[in-house]
Amino acid sequence: MGRKWNNIKEKKASKDANTSRVYAKFGIEIYVAAKKGEPDPESNRALKVVLERAKTYNVPRAIIDRALEKAKGSSDEIYSELRYEGFGPNGSMVIVDALTNNVNRTAPEVRSAFNKNGGSMGVSGSVSYMFTQTAVIGISGKTEDEVMELLIEADVDVRDIIVEDEDVIVYAEPDQFQALQDAFKAAGITEFNVAEITMLPNNEVDLPADAQAQFEKLIDALEDLEDVQQVYHNVNLQD
Question: Is residue 9 packed enough to be buried (19+ CB in 10 Å), middle (13-18) or exposed (0-12)?
């Protein structure tokens, strides 16, 4: 699973270079999550997950507070949650999650990004069956054995634990996300390098250099779209 973690880090590094865009998208995601229930992370699991992920991207408190205040207020702005699936160069697979207040805008823009960058849209289910929803938490300052011991003591089930670049990364079922965080926080760990529920490919593929360059343009084009929140793929990106 090591390359999967690298791909998560690469995605984060890419987004870190476009902070204003990232913050705007988090503002929408926080607002939508808060509207699903109470605008309180202690009673709204979806909101808590988003806020924990926002911390790993260093989203300013002002952005978070503004989104929460909007959710508490009289705003009736409605966003639809959409998922698109498609194929990139050499049969690579891509999942695109979007939040939009204009459904008539989003699909044509996503389709155009695929078509202009060597890809094509697929039908619902054509790609997602090759991915697994997974909770991922990465920390520093502990060994693999220490992490395993504290998770066993906390009775938290995990799929895998790996060590890479001095980070310990834990993969688990999505419903174990909160239990994982609680276990780490009980051990005095409150800072996470990654903390999210994501879609990980069951198998990764390598692309030749020319196809990878085109694939990266596709991913950039998709992530640049206003309505796109997350892009997942199965390509093992090479440096």
Answer: middle
Parts of the chain with a pLDDT under 50: 1-2
**CATH superfamily, with its number, for domain 131-201:** YebC, transcriptional regulation domain (3.30.70.980)
CA distance 98 to 84: 8
What pLDDT, on a 0 to 100 scale, did the predictor assign at position 17? 55
Q: How many CB atoms lie within 10 A of CB 187?
A: 17
HSE on the CB side for 49, CA within 13 Å? 19
pLDDT tens by residue, 79-119: 999 999 999 999 999 999 999 999 999 999 999 999 999 99
Out of 3.40.50.300, 3.40.50.800, 3.30.70.980, 3.30.70.20, which CATH number does the structure's domain 80-129+202-233 have?
3.30.70.980
For residue 221, the one-letter residue type is A
Beta strand 160-164 pairing with 167-172: antiparallel
Beta strands in the chain (DSSP E): 80-87, 93-100, 120-121, 131-139, 160-164, 167-172, 194-201, 228-233
2-72 adopts what CATH topology? Arc Repressor Mutant, subunit A (1.10.10)
Give the C-alpha separation, 128 to 223, whole Å: 18
Distance CA 21, CA 226 (A): 8
pTM for the whole thing? 0.90
CB count in 10 Å sphere of residue 133:
12
